[in-house]
Amino acid sequence: MAEFVNPYTFVPHVPVPERGAPAGHAVMGAGRFSGVLEVRLTAKTPLLIGGFTEKQADGSEKTVLPRRKDPAGTVIVPGSGLAGAVRSLHEALVGGCMRVLDLNRAPVHRHPADTTETERLSLAIVTEVKEGRATEVALCDRWRWVPEGLLPRSEGDPLLSGDQLQYVTASGKPGDFPSNAVTGPKSRRVVHGMDDKHSDGIRPGSIVRRRRMGPVTEKCKVVLVTGTDARDPKRPTAFFVVGDVGPDSERWTVPKETWELYERTVEDADDLRPAVLKDVGFKENEKPTWTDGMEPEYADVWWPPRQEQDQGQGHDGGGGEQQRLVGKRLYHRKYLHAGQPVWVDVFKGELTEIRLSLLWRYEAPGTVGDRVGEAKGCTDPLKLCWSCRIFGAADTEGRDDNDLAVQNSYRGHVRFDDLRAQGDVQPVQWNLAPLASPKPSAGQFYLDNRQRGKLADQNTRPMATWGSDADKPGPRPIRGRKFYWRTKTEADPDSAKPQRGKKRPHQSEALSSKVELIPAGTVFKGRITFDNLSAEDYGSLLAALNPCKIGTPGEGGWEDCVLSVGGGKPFGFGAVEIEVEKVRVQGARARYLGEPETVSIPDPDAAVRAFREAVQVEARANWPALRHALSFGFVDDEDVWYPPGGGTRGDEDYDKSFEFFALTNGLRYSESHGNHELMPLPDAAKGKAAQKMDSPAGREPRRERPGGRQGER
Questions:
Q1: Is the separation of the CB atoms in 477 and 15 below 8 Å?
Q2: Which of 607, 486, 587 is nearest to 542 (CA)?
Q3: What is the pLDDT of residue 555?
């Protein structure tokens, strides 16, 4: 067991935010104020500000310090980035809407190894393709599983997925596999070779290749070669499916919805990860795209399964047996080729699914929007949550072709200038560790699992997955707002000690990057202006700028709270402290007419008190968790790491977070294998010691996955 504190936690959100009409911009009402705040920002940990790059000698892009285009090249914290950070904290403080979410996203999970997941599937061949999109398929009349040793290949001429084959009888005539050589149930009919146990099996060399993948012009057999990495290496051989197809085979049109589902399920496939794409010749940030006349792209398939992600031949398969190249599979892409074999599901008179392997990937039911409910982003400009009333609301919903061009947005009342560094800034040159894009698919962390089951039956969908039995009687809501622990992190390029934000030798070059960091201790100054805010609004802005001000006499815990700015938050970067050094606040008559002030201007402390009193009870209930997430040093930096695999911190095995998620996904196994009980993140409202978790990873033999990413799931 390895103890760790996960880099991120969740603060619960308010299920139904309070919404109301904004103040508007036409009139500055009674009891409302405009003003200017002069602020001082101090970096408590190194800052990583993205969006500013320069090309290196090797053609790559390097993230550099953000600078103004003045003669001195003054380093800045961009106002846009500061605005986003302040707004995010404001939303958590007041129970605002969950604005920055992909509401239509539904995670994609791998199918469990259960016959109910495959019983309706048929092997098929793509017969029509338009710009990479399959528009028609032909169903195979039947299909058989054939040992790879009976399939045609020779030195320098390997078996390829999509090859069109023919069985030749002992008399030299084409035919079907002898019935006595085929055994097993309908969906798993297996062809046997001739040996001591199967005297009626087929002869080696009796299956021959007629042509490579392409249009089917006559009756033939087509082979689907798939990867072997997930198969049991203890089995004596690998089997590939071979189907019978011809010009007269039953054909089905691929509906638009079915193709779009295929595109979503293939989007996060291993073959489309940046590190894998780079290994096969793609440039950084380049993705495979369809071009007319393009050649199919193949990957080597080995038996026994390869335990390491290298491209050499003749490697040990992990059990002492020499590996051999048994064929080539097609890379998983968001396009298909004419003649490409696939699995399809025809249900109630419609082709509803396309798969690249028998056990593929499914889109879980229940989108992010379904699980957020009333807390999703504000869309009515006359009915906005507190944060949208102050900072504005953007209408980001798409439009159909026949929709009116109406923009339901609202301009905010707060503007942030760029903050300028006070003095020269010497950047810290840093080789950033790889980090995958956050995805909410790991339900043990991202979904609220309270009052739900811990284990699902073997070969069913694990409890962690979206759409499992844990979503009964209703879908689990999302866990809340994501925050990264604010730790006292240093960035020492010369330290030999493993640092979670620094690339380690085993990690992928394609996913790491060289950046410049703003060192801790750097001071910036600038202005924030606002207009037409109430005393409560003004206080909420002050609280979001400096949450230390939220605490009241006798209430501890807020004094060490900080804000987060920029990138690299999972690595401890971006913690800042903001102090308001000078305030100028005016009422309407003083601002617009130059008259003496006639209204009582709230001082900052009074404004924050007014804000505290105005926050709804449901939002205040989440403040203990929020206070811990914002507290600088609440958890120790040396404890924070993504869920570790086995081994020692800094080693390759330790960084294999995927194993943790597989071992805590809520699935029941055999007694000898052990159960994978669902392991959610600790409650952020609990104490420091309660945030530590034990990783069960490393207690079982692991299987490799490409990419070398850390465990953002």
A1: yes
A2: 607
A3: 65
